[in-house]
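User: I'm designing a mutation panel for Putative restriction endonuclease domain-containing protein and want to avoid disrupting the core. Could you give me a predicted structure to guide residue selection? Please restate the sequence first so the numbering is unambiguous.

Assistant: Good idea. Sequence first, for numbering, then the predicted structure tokens:
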Amino acid sequence: MTAVDDRPITHIVKMFEDLEVPDGFKAELLRGEIVMMAGPDLVHNRIVLRVLRQIPDEKWDCLQTQDIDLLSETSEPQPDLVVLDRDAGPESGRLLPAQLITMLVEVVSKNSVDRDYGVKRSIYAAGKIPAYLIVDPVMAQCVLLTDPAYRGEEADYRCQRISKFGETLPLPMLGIELDTTEFGTLPNVRPHRRP
């Protein structure tokens, strides 16, 4: 039996797990709130693909559409990309335990700015995810967050590194430098003031 099998099942968790999501949508449980969103933009999908292709698969598994077990936060997020050591993790199951994750990647959409920079940043820090990479095609920047600290809604990352698209971003936790020159941007989207 894994730690995921022993997790507490609250009413909202049960409701979320029984939810039938329409085709073309995805749903996440974020601090007790069920959030449903439409499928991603082509710019988004191409960025995820370009990140994934730069991570060496002989050492790392890069998973898409993988639910994460952060039920201490009443959360089951589904990041755009989950990176973990190739030898880590269970052989099967819907939820991946947070303690196995090396890095999470979220690509910002015009509707996810506050969620990616706000609540998910706090949830991932509370779950002690070592590195959280926000790729932002609205502002043409990457934000690498490391050194998670604190608990609950006060949780955050102590280190933040911002790189503009076109710059190389060191990812020492993966032993690579991420080339961002081919990351696209979202046209006609109003700039924001995050992080």
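For picking mutation sites, this is relevant: Residues 18 and 123 are 22 Å apart (CA to CA). Confidence is low (pLDDT under 50) at residues 1-5.
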